[in-house]
Design a protein that fits this description.
Binding site for ATP: 26-33, 151-154, 188-191
Number of strands: 9
Helix content: 40-55%
Strand content: 15-25%
CATH topology of the largest domain: Rossmann fold
CATH superfamily of the largest domain: HUPs
Bound molecules: pantoate
Family: Belongs to the pantothenate synthetase family.
Keywords: ATP-binding, Cytoplasm, Ligase, Nucleotide-binding, Pantothenate biosynthesis
EC number: 6.3.2.1
Strand order of the largest sheet: 1-4-3-2-5-6
CATH class of the largest domain: Alpha Beta
Largest sheet: 6 strands, parallel
Structural class: alpha/beta
Catalytic activity: (R)-pantoate + beta-alanine + ATP = (R)-pantothenate + AMP + diphosphate + H(+)
Number of helices: 11
Shape: globular
């Protein structure tokens, strides 16, 4: 596995590749990321006899963090990340410095549409999806992948990227990887490391709240009667009672994340974000 830091070295490393599969990350990797890496490897091996390459990027992207968020304290575990990537089928790690990726202030930015990017995460983290779309678009231009793998854990992010690729006619296939969960059901996340032992034991309650809302949606769809607002409010209140501060627990259409108000035959997803102590967790479940 090669580790490169600047664009010229990356282009040299990737030159011989007949096919490129890309996994963008911010490092501090866990099993969920490694499964995305394995998917990238499998896709390359399936599609090319040899000569295909997998690339992972490790870059903590300042543009997607708000002023009061955890950019400075976001865990940086570069050496361990590289060892894990190598053991999981990565050929090239691209780990640019801020100067390599943003040699001058990034004044050209990608602004995703408000109806997709200013809701849910975007409503609570203003500018987040501008930061994500800008860095992902830039990384796509640099790596020039044929396919890229993103986790469904960041469901809205995956939708924003898919939309960007489609609208900008980027010749990249986007593959969504399933969320990896701990044994108790907590979705794996780099931010789980911020939780105290007591909070870690409590953290699974977010996925339990989502399961409850998903079950209410399924039952309501079968019965032909579903008060979505009441079911969402009940799920939020259950978390509040346990000491959480929920931002949203909501039932949406998978297709565009628009709200539903009653029974629906369309594919749905429940999404949630809530603070436990100082840690903000997100999760989702397709219904
Ligand atoms: O999901 C992440 O880790 C980041 O948002 C991404 C896609 C690497 C962009 O910085």
């Amino acid at each position: 596995m090669q580790i490169v830091h600047n664009l010229a070295d990356l282009h040299r490393a990737l030159k011989p590749a007949a096919l490129r599969a890309f996994v963008p990350t911010m490092g501090n990797l866990h099993q969920g990321h490694l499964e995305l890496m394995q998917m990238a490897r499998q896709e390359v091996d399936k599609r090319t006899e040899k000569g295909g390459m997998t690339v992972a990027s490790i870059f903590v992207n300042r543009l997607q963090f708000g002023p009061n968020e955890d950019f400075d304290t976001y865990p940086r575990t570069f050496e361990n990340d590289c060892a894990l990537l190598e053991a999981n089928g990565c050929d090239v790690v691209f780990a640019p410095s801020e100067k390599d990726l943003y040699p001058e202030p990034q004044v050209f930015k990608v602004h995703p549409p408000a109806e997709l990017a200013d809701i849910l995460e975007g409503a609570f983290r203003p500018g987040f999806f501008v930061g994500v779309s800008t860095v992902v678009h830039k990384l796509f231009n640099i790596v020039q992948p044929d396919l890229a793998v993103f986790g469904k854990k960041d469901y809205q992010q995956l939708m924003v990227i898919r939309r960007m690729v489609q609208q900008m006619a980027l010749p990249i296939e986007i593959i969504g990887g399933e969320t990896r969960r701990a044994e108790d059901g907590l979705a794996l996340s780099s931010r789980n490391g911020y939780l105290s032992a007591e909070e870690r034991a409590e953290a699974v309650q977010l996925s339990i709240a989502l399961k409850g809302l998903a079950a209410a949606a399924r039952a309501g769809n079968v019965a032909g009667q579903l008060d979505v607002a009441a079911a969402e409010a009940a799920a939020m209140e259950a978390l509040r009672q346990r000491g959480w501060a929920p931002d949203y627990i909501t039932l949406r259409r998978q297709h565009d994340l628009s709200p539903v108000s009653g029974p629906s035959a369309e594919p749905l997803v429940v999404l949630g974000a809530a603070k436990l102590g100082k840690t903000r967790l997100i999760d989702n479940l397709e219904v």
